[in-house]
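Sequence only, no structure available. Ideas?
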Amino acid sequence: MISRTKYRIDGAALEKLFRSAGIDGAANIAPLGAGEYNAVFSAKAGGREYAVKIAPTDGTPILTYERDMLASEVYWYGLMRERTSIPVPEIHHADFSRKLIPAGFFIMEKLQGRQMDQMDFTRAEKADCTAQLAKMAAQIHRIKNDRFGYIQNGLYEDWHRAIRAMAQSLMEDAAARGVTPRRGKKLLSLIDKHRETLAKAECSMVNFDIWPPNIICRREEGAMIYAWIDPERSFWGDRIVDFVCLEMMTPLAGKKASLDAYNSVADSPVLATGEERIRYAVAQGYLALIMEVEKLYRYTPFHYGWWRNVAAAAMLYRSAFEALE
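Reply:
I predicted one. C-alpha cells follow.
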C-alpha cells in the first residue's frame, strides 16, 4: 500500500544492498507484501529467495515509538528463534549505519507460502488457524521481562507507567501535527483511573500486530504450517493486549476459540476476569489512539488508509470506553 513513510529506491540501489551483504546476482527484484510503513522487496539470488526491508529515512516524520523500529524487529526475531518454535525468517544481514542509503535495512529469508488473508481455507482449517495463532501467542508470552515498554523508547517499572507513557507519546505526536485527540485525552484519564489494575499486570513479550498479512501459511503433507513475520511493533507488556488482534472486535469473554486454545498451552490461563477485561479495554483504546494518530503521518483524507483508520479507531474507542467508564 502507498504510504508517505516508505523509502523510494530503484533496482540498481537494491542490487547494491544485496552485494553489501555478500549476495551477488540479485534478480527479479519486486515490491513485496501489503505493509504500510517500511519498504519491502523480494529478490532471487543463487537459487534462494530473499526479502529486503528498508526503514523510512531519518528525516521522515514518524511516530515516536517507530524510531529505530527496524532494529528492534531484528531483536524480536532473535528472541522468537531462540525461545519459541514459531517459524520466523532467518536474518542474513542487517545494516543500520546509513552508509549505503540514508536508512537502516536488513535482508532476510523469504518464507515460502502465502499471507493468511490470501489463503483459501477450508472450514476446518479456519478453526485450526484461530487455535494455532492463540497457541503461538502463548509461546511468546512465556518470554518474560521485569520492565515494560518499547525497547527503543525506554522501559518502565510497571504496565500502568508504560502504557500511559506510550499513549502520551502518541498525544505528543498528534500535537506535532497540530491535533489534540479528544478521545486520547479521555483514554489517558481512564488509564489513570485504573492504574492499580494495570500495575498488577505481568511483563511478557507481546506482538500486538497478529493480523493476517503478518502470518505466512503453507500446506505441508496435509497440514497447515504458520509462520510469523513483521514483529516490529512488539514490546514488553501485558500479554492481554495480544487478544485485541485475536478474533478482533469480539469481546474478550467471547473469544472462546482463542481462549480455549491459549489456555491449553499457556503458563497461566486467561479467564476474562473483571480486571483482565479492564486491561483488554485499555489495549483497545491504545490501538485506537495509534490508528487515530498514525493516519496524520501516513495518509491524506484522499487515501483509503485514512478513512479505514477513522472507522477502526471509532469502533475500538467505543468498545474501550464502554468497559472503562
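Strands lie at 27-31, 39-45, 48-54, 91-95, 105-109, 114-115, 204-206, 215-220, 223-228, 235-237.
Hope that gets you unstuck.
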